[in-house]
Amino acid sequence: MLRILLIEAAVFLTSSQFLIKSEDPNSMKSSWNISKGQWLIYDYQNTQYFGDKYIQSDTNILQNLYNLSHPHYLVQVEIDMIVNDKIKNVVVQLDDQNQTYVNNQSMVETIKINFYFEHHSQIACIRISIQSINDYTNYYWGISQFKISTFNCSQNVEYCETYQNMPWKILYDQDKVNLSLVDHRYFTNSELSCQNFKWFTSNVNVNSKQLFDYQLRVKGSILVKIRFKLLINYFTNFNVVLGRNSTILNFVLNQVDFHFLYYCSYLEYDVFQIEIDTNVQNEDQLLLQLQFQYNPWVNIFDFRVYHIEEDNEQQAQAIFGCLHALYDQCLICQEGWIYNPIIKSCQMNLGDENRNLVLSQDDRQSEYSGSINQIQSLPIFEQQISLFLISELIGFKEGGNIINILSICGDGVVGMNEECDDSNQFQFDGCFNCQFSCPLNCQQCNYGKCVTCDLGYELIKQQCTSICGDQLIQQYEICDDGNQIKFDGCYQCQSNCQIECYNCISAYCVECQEGWNLIDGKCEQMCGDEQVAIMSYEQCDRLNDNTCVNCQFRCEYNCLTCQSPQQCTICSYSYQLLDGTCKSVCGDGIVNNEFEDCDDGNNIMYDGCFECSLQCSLGCILCEVDNYCKKCDSQFYKLDLSTHLCEIIPKQDTEDTNQNNENLDSENQNNNLHCNYNYIYVDGLCINQCGNAKLQYQYEQCDDGNTIGGDGCSQSCTIENQFICETIEAQQSECLFLKLPDFYLNLISDKKNQTQTVELTFTQQVRLKIEMDFEEWAQITVLPETDYLLNVISITNLTTLFSFPKYHINIIFNKPVNDPIFQITIYKSSISSEDNQEPQNSKKIINLGQPFVLPESTKQQVMQITQMNDAMMYSMMSISTLALATGNAILFFNMLDLLQSLSYIRFMQYQFPPHLKQFLDTYTKVSLKPILDYFQVDSLIAKLNGGSLPYQSSRSSASTSSINTLNCYYLINAKSCYFSLAASLMTYFLSILLSHELVNKYAQKLFNNHLYNQKYLKLITTFQRDIQLKCLKLKNQYFSTGIYQVYFAALHQLCFSTFLQFPEYSVNSIFEIFNSISAIISCIVIIYISFKSFAITSAIIKDTQKWKYFYEESKDSFWAVNIKSFQIYRIQFYIFVIVYLINYPEAQSISLSTFSLFYLFFLLKFRPLKSQYDLTKLIIKEILFSLIIGSFLVYSYNLDNKLNLLFGWIHIGMFSLMLASNLVIDIVEQVQKVYKNYLKRKFRQQQYEVQLYINNPLQKFIQFEYNRKHLK
C-alpha cells in the first residue's frame, strides 16, 4: 500500500505523461487475446462494449502486449467498463504487478478504473481478469475504452526509476532476440510461434545443458545494467555468467521476484524479468552467458543493455565497503571486498589462496593457508572438523569450544572484526585502526566518507575545506572579513594592506595616504575634514562652497558626472558632451524630448524625420507614427500597400487620364486600404509575418519560426513569462526556459498558540537590487483585521549579496479571531535571482489556524496568580535562606529541589493552554542567569568557539518543527553548574584563609594593641566569634557535607546538560574536544556518585563524620538512611525521562507519575526524615506532583478552548497549592522555632534573676543573720 501511495504521489509531481494507446471495443477485438472465457461486442445504452453477457465462466482473462517506446518509470492504466452485481473483482496485471478493483455495485453500473504501476521495461504485458461469483446467472461485463499512458524520464535519460535519475544511456536494444541469427547451434520451432515470438532450443540432446552467450562491447562505460525477459516452456534453473571476473549468478526460478504468466498458443508460460547491474570500468568487452540446467524451449525478448559513460560527473556517495561510487551504485570496492552484482553492493572477501587463515579456539590459535571456500577437513588442535562454507566456520561450536576467525589489522584485507583495512595508520584518511573514521574537520561521515563538514568548512571531493568568506577563521586562514575585496586588510583570508594605507604591519596600518585618517590601524575617509582623500569618492571637501555637496561637485542639470562644476565628463541620456558641456545634437539618433520630435540619425528629406521634426514620406498627405502612409496625393502618387510608401504615377494619354478620372473613386478607396503592422499585402490578402523565423525588431520581440505558444515565443511573437530569448535581426530566435525564484511560507508553531510563527524562505539564492529594510520590500497583513503585535526575526537576512534568506515572523494576537489569514506581499522589482529574474509570485497567504487568545479578564487573573506565585516563591527562598544561615540546610535544599523540578516541566511537549504556559514560565526565574550575564560568560564561550556561540540541535529538532529547540551543547547548559562549583571552592578557600592561624594571631595582636578602645575590641570579637568560627566550621565540614550540598543543588542542571549531550560527542575542534571531555567526565561523576552514595548509606559500619551529609536529618533504619541516595536517583530518573522521552509526552506523564507514586509509598512506609515538617512537605509535594503530571494526559486529546482553559486553571491551582502548602509549613515551623527560642530565653532570664538574687551581698547577710538566729 505504501508503494502505491508513493507512486501516486509521483504522478502529481510530474507533468511528463505520454499516451501510448487508446483502444475502443473494435480495436480490442483485433489485438487482445482471450486466454480464458468468451467475448462479444454489444451495445448498452448507445455505447459499444467489448465483453460478455450471461457468461458461464467464473473467470475471464484478456491479455495484450504493448511496446512502450519512451523511457519511463510509471505506467497508468485507465479502463471504462460496465459490471453488474455478479462480478466480484476486476484484476489488472502489468507484468508481475497487479491491482484489484473490488466491485460493490448492486446493478449494472458504469465504473472507471485508474491504476498506476511502477515500470521500466519497453515491452509491457497487460492482463485483465474478470472474476465473478459462483452463480452462473445474469453475468454482465464489458469494456468501452482502454487507455495506457507512461510517465517518461527526464530528457537525455534513457532509463530511470521513480526516485532516481541516473544518466543511463542505451547500449543494446533488441525487442526480440533472434537466436538463430546469432548462433548456428540453435534452431526454431515455428509451430510454437505466437505474437511474433519464436521458440528456440539447442540442437543437442534434451538432457544436456544449454548455453546462450553474447559479446557486449562496453568500452568507455563505468556501469552496465542488463535487463531482459525470459520466456520458458517449463521450469528449469539457470545461471548467468558475467565475463568480468567470471562472476556466476545462480537463479532458482521459484525464487525470482519478477515473475508472471503469459498466454501463448493456448497455453500459459512463465516469463521472468532479469536485471543485473555490474561495474565495467576499464573493461572493453563483457561476456554474458545463460546456462540452463536442462534444454528447454526458450525465448528472450525485451533485451536491453544500458550503460553510464565515463565522462558523467560522478556524485560521491557513502556505501559500505565501496571505494568509488556513482549515485547509489558501487563502481570499485575497497580492498578486501568483492562486488556482488545481484545485491548491487560489496561483500567481505574473507580469504583467498594467498592468505593465511588465522583461527582461534578459546585462548589458543592456529594458522591455515589456503582458500576458505575450498576447506574440506581442517585440523584444529588435534580435531578434524568438516567445514565447507565460511559461514559454517564462524561461531562453530565443537565440544564446548567456539572457533572464530582472527582478523589482522594492516594486512589490507577486511576481517570479521574490521570495518576497513587500508594498510596504514593515517588517522584522518577514512580508516584508522581498521575502523571507519571521519576525515579532518568532518562533523558527520558514513563509512569513512564525509557527509557534513564542521561549521566553517565545505565538502569538496569528500574533503572538508575551510570556507573563505564566512567570517570564521579556520585552518590555514589568517583572517576572514566576509568578502573578497582587495586592499581592505584581508583578501582570500590572508593579511592584506588597505589600498589607502601607505605603510602597514600585518594588515595594521601605521601611515595612510594623503587625505585619509588613521583610526585604530585603519585608514578612514571623513567627509568634512577639509582634505580630499585620494582614491576615494571625494572630489572636493569645502564646507562653505555651494558647488561642493557631500564631497562631490554639483554638476549641471543635464550632467551625470563632472570633474568640476564647469567640466562635465558624462552627460545624461539624449545629450552629448561637447567641450565639457552637455548639448542636444540633432542627428545623433537619440531623441531629446525637450528639443526634438524625432531623430533618425540623418538629414534626408521625406524619410519620416527631417531636422528632428516629423515629416511624411514623398507624396504622402496623411501618415502615422513610423512614417506609415495612409493617404497619398492621388493626382501624382499611388499607395504601395507592401511598403506603405507613395509611388509616382507615370504620364499617360488623355484617354487614359479620362479613364482614370472615371475610376477615381475606386482608386481613392484602394489607396486608403492597407494592412496592420507586421502584415504584408499579397493577392488581396494581409499575410502575418510572425512565425517566418525572421525577426523584425520593429514589430516583434522574438520569432522562433512557429506560432505555437508555450515554447518561449508566443503566437504573437512576444517573449513569454519565465523565458529568455536570443534575438538577432532577420534570424530565428532561440528561447530558453528559466525557473523563476519563489518564496514559501511555513507555519512552524502550533495552530492553537496565541503566538503564531511563520517561516519565510526562498527557493533560490536571491538578493536586493539596492539596500532596503524588511519593511521596505515586504508588506505583511493579517486578515480579518484584529489587534496583534508583529515581530520579525532575521535568521538569514536578505541583502545585496546572494543568499538563501530566512525569516521567522511572530504574530502575537491580543484578541480572539477566527481563521486568521497571514498575507505577505513582496515588491518583486526589488529582488532578483542569480539569473537576474524577479520572483514568480508577489503575494502568498497561509492560514494561521485557531489561535487560543486569553480574554482580558483571564489575563488579569493569570497575572494576579503569577504575582502571588512569585511572592510565595520569594518568601520560601527567604525562609529557606534564613534556615540555611541558622544551620537547617535540609529546608533550603528541599525548597531548591521543588523549584527546580517544577522548572523542567516546561520541556514536556504538550500543547498547554496559554495561561498555563505563562504560569510555568515563572519557575524559570530561580536561576543564575543574571549573575552569568553580568560576568559575560556567553561572550567568553563565544570567543573560545571562534566568535559565535556553539549550537547543536536536540533530539526533538529532528522530528518536530518546534521553534523552541534545545541546544545540546554541554558547556552552554552546564555553565551554571561550573559557576556554582567555582563559587563553592572560592568560599572554601576564603574560609581557609580567614580561619588560618596567622589571621587569628593578627587579630589577637590587634586586640592587645587596642585594649582600651571598646569599638575596636567589639569589632575584633565579632570577627572572631561570628566569622572565624563559622569559616572554621565550613572548612572542617566542606568535604563531609558542603561539596555534596553543592552537587545536590546543581544535580538537576548537571544531569540535564549531560543527558542532552550523550552520546553526541564531537572532536572537530579544540573547543569541541574540551566540551566532549567535560561531558564525559560529568557522566562518569554522575555514575560514580550514584553507586558510591548507595554504598555509603548501605554500609554495615557507618562513618557518620566522614559522610555526614548522607546521615544527617535521617533516621537510623536501613531504608530511612538511604533517603539521600533515593533523592539523587529520583532526580536522575526525572531528568532522564524529560530528555530521552521529550518527543513522547504521554510516556513522560506515565513514567514520572508512576515513579512519583513509588517514591510516595517509600515516604509513607518508612518515614525516613527526623523532621516531621520536612517529611510532610515531601509527601504533599509527591501527591500533587503525581496528580499533576498524570493528569497532563488530557492535553493529548483535541479539547475545545473552554475545556483547555478549565484544565489549565485546575493545574495552576494544584501548582499554587503545592507552593502554598510548603510555605505554610515553613512558616509554622519557623514560628514554632521562634516560640521555642523565646521560651528558652525566658527560662534563662528567670534563672539569671534567681541567681542574681541569691548572689546579692545584702541578701546573703540577711540569710546569714536569719540562719544564725534560728539555728541557735
Question: What would your notes on this structure say?
Answer:
There is one protein chain. With 1272 residues, this protein is of the alpha+beta class. The protein contains 23 helices and 69 strands. The strands form 26 sheets. Strands 1, 3, 4, 6, 9 and 11 form a six-stranded antiparallel sheet that branches. A five-stranded antiparallel sheet has the order 2-5-10-7-8, with no helix packed on it. The model is unreliable at 10-15, 179-187, 351-404, 664-673 and 955-964 (pLDDT under 50).
What is the helix tally? 23
Structural class: alpha+beta
Q: Radius of gyration from the CA trace?
A: 47 Å
Poorly predicted parts? 10-15, 179-187, 351-404, 664-673, 955-964
Give the overall average pLDDT.
Answer: 76
**Main sheet: strands, sense, barrel:** 6 strands, antiparallel
- Distance from first to last alpha carbon: 123 Å
Determine the strand fraction and express it as a percent band.
Answer: 25-35%
Shape: extended
Tally of DSSP β-strands: 69
Please estimate the helix content: 25-40%
Main attributes of the structure:
23 helices; alpha+beta; six-stranded antiparallel β-sheet; 69 strands; extended; five-stranded antiparallel β-sheet; 1272 residues
